[in-house]
Design a protein that fits this description.
Elements lengths: L6 H23 L5 H9 L7 H24 L1 H20 L4 H29 L3 H32 L4 H4 L1 H15 L13 H24 L4 H23 L13 H30 L5 H7 L1 H21 L1 H20 L7 H27 L8 H33 L2 H26 L7
Helix pairs in contact: 1-5, 1-6, 1-8, 3-4, 3-5, 3-9, 3-16, 4-5, 4-8, 5-6, 5-16, 6-12, 6-13, 6-15, 9-10, 9-16, 11-15, 11-16, 11-17, 13-14, 13-15, 14-15, 14-17, 16-17
């Protein structure tokens, strides 16, 4: 069956899919502010506490390609609903966890559920809105709402931890999961590839292993340094598995990732640009939250609330993004988004001890969030350009994988850079250097898009 539904149901379906994606991305960051409370309540050691965050990233980033292709083969609605159900159950287990291993296992299961639901959701939206203009608007909303999820996680984490309990950062997922499971089957028909084929098992094993090893190695490098065997070993293994994956895919009759898929220029450029975009913005969110609390002296709840204006800039960028793509073309929209984001990061890089929030922190935050909101939807539109019922899940999974890996690289490299500079000077100089490098990544992304995307109305 194809994803054909009555026009009146497409709007409600989009709302449900966007709310789920908001929930999935929110859980990338929602534990950040709550970690000290989690440590004290559940009994984590300082070394093991990072796995409350890392378990989610490893499962989410590592399993995306596998489940994205599974959605194409076995049914996108089926995989989406299975992922939402797993995510809901895992959220409940996290919320009632009494031992460290229970919370880490729950976070890993949450990440697996997110890896099932996220690419299937984007694929469903892509097929629900086939026309260029309606697809641009729908993906604009989806990308913007997804971007807001990361920001909202910091605010919600601070508010719930300060006013109630850290357990509620997981339990609030349950109503969203239940609503999605009840509503989506009534709004969207099943959808799968018109030529289902078979799962490429060797490619799935190698590709998943490479992604899991890469994300794990990057997270370990941020924690223990690039020279530590705990980081170097997984990164070397990831490289070996990635080379093997490419070799197997080149010969496979029905590959997990056809090498011709990224031969479409707009998709290849969009995914490369997404890598740089995610690296810069993931690192910024992490570094700024730490900077607000350690250098400016904000309490967790205050630091979370300080992020609220970021949402305003994101919403403005969301509103502008699809309109800009349709009016000015993908190339100009993305170049503008990357350059605006770079300017915002340069402004934030100047934030130091004693600086006033309204006159120093806020302007940089608003400009940065505008660039982020403008760029996220446009990148999603470009990355799934030309996908069909045969490969919509694959295109969505590749984009999501690139974003997760890019974010992990950004956090690992830029946080290490900031820490190294802080040891030699002071925390503000480390923060400033890292955000300046992040701004340079976005400037390079703007040059990449300007040079490699065509000048046509849509590209």
């Amino acid at each position: 069956m194809t994803t054909t539904v009555a026009a009146g149901r497409r709007g409600p379906a989009l709302v449900v899919l966007c709310f789920v994606q908001f929930m999935l991305v929110l859980d990338d960051t929602v534990v950040s502010v709550a970690l000290p409370s989690v440590r004290d309540d559940v009994g984590f050691s300082a070394a093991s506490l990072t796995w409350v965050v890392n378990a989610y990233f490893v499962a989410f980033g590592g399993l995306l390609l596998l489940f994205g292709r599974a959605a194409d083969l076995f049914g996108r609605r089926r995989v989406f609903l299975s992922g939402v159900a797993l995510f809901g159950v895992a959220s409940l287990l996290c919320g009632i966890a009494q031992e460290p291993w229970q919370l880490v296992a729950g976070r890993f299961a949450q990440g697996a559920g997110a890896a099932m639901a996220s690419p299937a959701a984007l694929a469903l939206i892509t097929l629900l809105f086939p026309g260029p203009e309606e697809r641009a608007r729908a993906l604009g909303i989806w990308g913007g709402i997804a971007g807001l999820g990361g920001t909202a996680g910091l605010v919600i984490s601070g508010a719930l931890t300060g006013l109630a309990s850290w357990r509620w950062i997981f339990l609030i997922n349950l109503p969203v999961a239940v609503a999605a499971l009840a509503l989506l089957p009534r709004l969207v028909a099943e959808s799968r590839a018109s030529q289902p084929g078979r799962m490429d098992v060797p490619g799935a094993v190698l590709g998943t292993g490479a992604l899991v090893s890469l994300v794990y190695g990057l997270l370990q490098s941020a924690e223990s340094g690039w020279g530590d065997i705990a980081a170097v070993g997984p990164l070397v293994l990831a490289a070996v598995l990635a080379v093997s994956f490419v070799a197997v895919e080149a010969r496979a009759a029905e590959p997990l990732v056809p090498l011709s898929f990224l031969a479409v220029r707009i998709r290849a450029v969009a995914n490369c640009a997404s890598f740089l975009f995610s690296a810069a913005f993931f690192a910024m969110a992490f570094l700024l939250m730490v900077h607000l609390q350690t250098v400016l002296g904000y309490q967790p709840l205050t630091a979370g609330l300080a992020y609220l204006p970021y949402a305003a800039g994101m919403l403005t960028g969301l509103w502008l993004s699809s309109r800009a793509v349709l009016r000015f073309g993908m190339r100009r929209t993305l170049v503008a988004a990357f350059l605006i984001g770079a300017v915002g990061l340069v402004l934030l890089a100047g934030v130091g001890p004693g600086d006033d929030y309204a006159t120093v922190v806020l302007p940089g935050m608003l400009v940065t969030s505008l660039g982020c909101g403008l760029g996220n939807p446009a990148l999603a539109i470009a990355a799934v350009e030309g996908t069909t019922e045969q490969d919509a899940g694959l295109g969505s999974a590749i984009l999501s994988s690139v974003q997760q890996v890019g974010g992990a690289v950004g956090v690992a490299v830029l946080v290490a850079l900031a820490a190294g500079r802080a040891q030699a000077a002071d925390p503000s100089e480390g923060f400033s250097l890292a955000l300046t490098v992040a701004a340079a990544l976005l400037a390079f992304g703007a040059l990449l898009v300007a040079a490699l995307l065509g000048k046509g109305s849509r590209a």
